[in-house]
Amino acid sequence: MSNFYVGSEVGQLRRVLLHRPERALNHLTPSNCHDLLFDDVLAVEQAGKEHDAFSQTLRSQGVEVLLLQDLLAETLAVPEAKEWLLETQISTFRFGSRFANDVRCFLGDQTNNEMAAILLGGLSYGEMPLPSSSMMSGMHTENDFIIKPLPNHLFTRDTSCWVYGGVSINPMAKRARQRETNHLRAIYRWHPTFSGQEFIKYFGDEERNYDYSTIEGGDVLVIGKGAVLIGMSERTTPQGVEQLASGLFKHGQAKQVIAMELPKHRSCMHLDTVMTHMREDTFSIYPEVIRKDVKCWKLTGDETGAVNVKEEGYFVTAIEKALQVDQLNLITTGGDNFEAEREQWNDANNVLTVKPGVVIGYERNVYTNEKYDKAGITVLPIPGDELGRGRGGARCMSCPIERDDI
């Protein structure tokens, strides 16, 4: 068995993938941020410092931190990987053959680290000095993007998620994020850390149109004991859940998937923005969204990959059964209604558990952090005044690659 194994949400975290954003945030402006799925522009240097504090907090807990840009640059050192990424990310269908060729030539002249930075952070017409005879360059201004930035790569949780002994390389719902998936495909296929290792790819590794079968890792909670909890949100569809469940059952990696229906709005974009697992029997929840009447289904299956679906009653009971605990302890967002709504917007519920009962969360969420503390949960606070504007907390910004069972 490989070391790539995520057996729970709360067991000791050992290795994690993060992305320190810089170039993409430099390209984020008030006029383009909404298209790029951000509500606001961030102070770039400050966001970088806050991210470093997050990495440092993880390292101080004995967690190995891998950084996406480093992995991508090291992947580009493999000629086959570089060729594949230039073909897929700079495709002739996207750019026209003449211009695609010019852009590839320009990128091919960069160092691997510069090329990785451009693929992740974008490239404007003004930043590519090579003249091109293509119609494309004649029809754009220098501030238009040739390659759009990917500021959401900051949220490494979504693009791929490790579930027990394998990974789902997720087809993303929004156009602004779809290119991210190819970076992870390339890393898991060619990067020396991953290539030649034995791990399962459940879903999403082929280049094809996945149509409505989209899934994002923020909706996937590996709650342990062979169970996976998945939220069907604005970004994760029932079709996507069935595809992933089928892969899990086919490879004998999960006994059951519990799927919950979420409202399709921005404040609860993913399940982990309204519910996270902090200790074997303890979850944080935002009660405005995670209500008693949330619809919930249990999916089971076998090696044929067939999926059986059965509607369940109260989702808490389904989780208690799956985790074999008598009673779940649900900690609700802190403060009065106004404070709770504000803190949920600032990701008070989106904490990253490092080991049972120890979580990383934004220091600004004082009321909720106080409630965690009273419930015996230790919060390791990180600054998030800038990072939090991207609408994602510590769990969103991390992709666990190795974590213990419960």
Automatic annotation (TrEMBL):
Active-site annotation: C396
NCBIfam families reported in the protein's UniProt record: arcA (TIGR01078), PRK01388.1 (NF002381)
A UniProt-annotated Pfam family: ADI
Protein name as annotated: Arginine deiminase
Signal peptide: none
A molecular function (GO) term: arginine deiminase activity
Enzymatic reactions: L-arginine + H2O = L-citrulline + NH4(+)
The family this protein is said to belong to: Belongs to the arginine deiminase family.
Entry EC no(s): 3.5.3.6
Organism encoding this protein: Vibrio algarum
Main EC class the enzyme belongs to: hydrolase
Pathway noted in the entry: Amino-acid degradation; L-arginine degradation via ADI pathway; carbamoyl phosphate from L-arginine: step 1/2
Entry superkingdom: Bacteria
InterPro entries listed in its UniProt record: Arg_deiminase
Keyword field: Arginine metabolism, Cytoplasm, Hydrolase
